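Why should sequence recovery work at all? Because a backbone constrains its sequence more than one might expect. Tight turns favour small or flexible residues, buried strands favour hydrophobic ones, and helices have their own preferences. The token representation captures these environments compactly. In the example below, the structure is given first.
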């Protein structure tokens, strides 16, 4: 029996057997150990320890003196700041547009490429189980732009393949549905009720719908009699209770608070029911439902609201426009099945493979699912495209007047040493809020617009289990968990592709997902304040804090005997995204955010701006489209 102990962790990171994470900085490049392989690491990941140290020093402490800066004898046609999907796409598009002989350098502050498209590998009993640590799925991909569809085709992604790769019968075959876990600390007892009490679980294709009626489920919930009455009232509610004419309904739900609807329209004041409502949207909203408009809450299926009725509220034509721009996981036209075993990390990996062919075997997205990348190939001097990890950019400046200069100089920190490289153009595909600190001479109005950006904290924890018999026994495909740090626990999407096989039986190992959208302590506090408070709290926790929470959550939810934490949990990866996806504002808070983002992303001389931040989104296709725009602005 393997017991996870504190001694297994070095600075919060559980080292994978036979691997090392020691990068050797040589003249500014990353000459990496041949065994360097970040996807296999567990412990604290995501924006891992040290990844933001230099960025915080620049933004918070206004640090400008990094010691002597070594100018490298490296010149590039393009330098990309940020190695996420948008940055990698920028490099790919640039070579497509200008020729594969164009030299490109991609700099990223993390120890892995992909940004939020993070691949987690859990080795359990000699078998590797894949799961995503951030960017999850291609949403409504057939409704995307020609730019996105062409890129997916170039990467060898066959969207129709998922019709077979995704096992739509998995949840039915194993009788797995959506439940709610009420924990003892918040609700007085540990109890599982086989009903989700919200519509968030509808996005998992094939997940079994609750067999309990609303009335039966409410009766079983560990709430006071008053709370049960109020919960049932919420479940029987909906926008129809507003009794407004259709021509006024859309404007009303776009400008009125969901919590005001609960409290004023429905008369809900029970704190436990309000807590269930607050956490019923999790990462789909990227916020507690206490700060959503009624329309936003409807769109993501908050407690008592069915997103299917969204189409009826806004009309068929506008619904189609919304779907084309943003996607809708509840849409019947394009099932939510376009998911690789490691999420959108496969897109990032395939972009890297296309530009650095020797990094791995495989010619298309399906063939590289099981391919182990050789990270020591990323920054070879012989490469036309080089990816330099563990490198934080702290300064970007034109060689002369931005309106006429043909050169841009980029300073970055690698292994605590300062280096400088020169490029003919730069795409800033990093967190847009950092750009004013890095490009110090931006026009004032543009700088102020970029500084307005706010990022949403998110947490995607993956847990390697030796078996999932306890999940099967409880019928848990997904568990909404309103009293816990992780508001959602779920079996991963059942996808088998490229030689990789999803867990077949409850006796086999698997990796499960635990999702948290941290909220502030004060219900109803402005979004920006809640995000800031939740971010600081997240970063203040050690791995042992997360492990304690996960232990209590799974132990309280799963049946004793069938589940024992120290016996059945092989590994834990906590993907902390203190700066997750960009906050887009709403009618209730910061209604001018989208206008400010458009102002902030304007080109500045030989510097252009990409990343999903420049469109205030969380979707992979938006990251791709913003990359295309930024590259085309470099004329």
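From this structural description, the recovered sequence reads:
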């Amino acid at each position: 029996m393997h017991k996870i102990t504190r001694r297994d962790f070095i600075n919060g990171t559980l080292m994978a057997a036979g691997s090392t994470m020691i990068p050797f900085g040589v003249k500014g490049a990353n000459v990496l150990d041949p065994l360097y392989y970040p996807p296999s690491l567990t412990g604290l990941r995501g924006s891992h320890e040290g990844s933001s140290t230099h960025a915080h020093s620049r933004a918070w402490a206004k640090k400008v003196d990094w010691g002597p800066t070594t100018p490298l004898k490296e010149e590039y046609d393009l330098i990309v700041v940020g190695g996420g999907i948008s940055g990698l796409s920028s490099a790919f598009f640039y070579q497509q547009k200008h020729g594969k002989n164009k030299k490109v350098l991609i700099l990223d502050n993390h120890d892995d490429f992909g940004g939020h498209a993070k691949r987690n590998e859990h080795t359990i009993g000699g078998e590797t189980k894949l799961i995503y640590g951030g960017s999850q799925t291609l949403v409504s991909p057939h409704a995307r732009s020609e730019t996105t569809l062409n890129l997916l085709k170039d990467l060898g992604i066959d969207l129709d393949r998922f019709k077979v790769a995704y096992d739509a019968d998995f949840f039915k075959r194993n009788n797995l549905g959506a439940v709610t876990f009420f924990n003892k600390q918040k609700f007085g007892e540990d109890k599982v009720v086989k009903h989700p009490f919200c519509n968030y679980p509808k996005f998992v294709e094939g997940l079994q719908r609750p067999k309990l009626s609303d009335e039966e489920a409410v009766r079983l919930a560990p709430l006071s009699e008053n709370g049960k009455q109020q919960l049932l009232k919420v479940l029987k509610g909906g926008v129809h209770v507003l009794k407004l004419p259709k021509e006024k309904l859309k404007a009303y739900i776009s400008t009125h608070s969901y919590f005001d609807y609960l409290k004023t329209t429905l008369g809900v004041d029970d704190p436990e029911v309000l807590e269930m409502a607050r956490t019923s949207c999790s990462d789909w909203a990227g916020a507690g439902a206490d700060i959503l408009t009624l329309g936003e809450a409807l769109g993501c299926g908050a407690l008592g609201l069915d997103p299917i009725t969204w189409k009826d509220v806004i009309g068929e034509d506008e619904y189609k426009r919304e779907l084309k721009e943003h996607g809708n996981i509840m849409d019947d036209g394009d099932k939510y099945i376009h998911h690789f075993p490691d999420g959108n990390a496969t897109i990032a990996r395939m972009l890297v493979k296309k530009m650095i062919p020797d990094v791995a075997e495989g010619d298309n997205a399906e063939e590289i699912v099981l391919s182990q990348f050789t990270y020591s190939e990323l920054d070879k001097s012989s490469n036309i495209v080089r990816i330099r990890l563990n490198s934080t950019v702290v300064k970007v400046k034109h060689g002369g007047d931005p309106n006429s200069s043909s050169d841009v100089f980029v300073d970055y920190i690698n292994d605590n040493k300062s280096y400088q490289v020169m490029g003919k153009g730069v795409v800033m595909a990093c967190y847009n809020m950092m750009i004013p600190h890095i490009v110090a001479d931006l026009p004032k109005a543009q700088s102020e617009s970029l500084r307005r950006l706010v990022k949403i904290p998110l947490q995607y924890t993956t847990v390697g289990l030796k078996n999932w018999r306890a999940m099967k026994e409880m019928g848990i495909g997904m568990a909404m968990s309103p009293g816990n740090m992780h508001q959602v626990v779920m079996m991963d999407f059942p996808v088998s592709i490229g030689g990789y096989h999803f867990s077949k039986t409850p006796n086999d190992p698997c990796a499960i997902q635990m999702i948290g959208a941290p909220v502030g302590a004060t219900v109803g506090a402005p979004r920006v304040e809640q995000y800031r408070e939740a971010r600081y709290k997240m970063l203040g926790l050690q791995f042992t804090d997360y492990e304690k929470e996960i232990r209590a959550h799974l132990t309280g939810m799963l049946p004793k005997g069938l589940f024992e934490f120290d016996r059945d949990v092989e590994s834990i990866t906590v993907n902390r995204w203190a700066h997750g996806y960009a906050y887009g504002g709403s009618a209730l808070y910061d209604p001018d955010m989208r206008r400010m983002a458009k102002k902030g992303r304007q080109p500045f001389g030989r510097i252009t701006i990409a990343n999903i931040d420049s469109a205030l989104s969380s979707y992979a296709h938006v990251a791709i489209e913003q990359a295309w725009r930024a590259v085309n602005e470099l004329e």
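A few observations help interpret the result. The longest strand covers residues 569-577.
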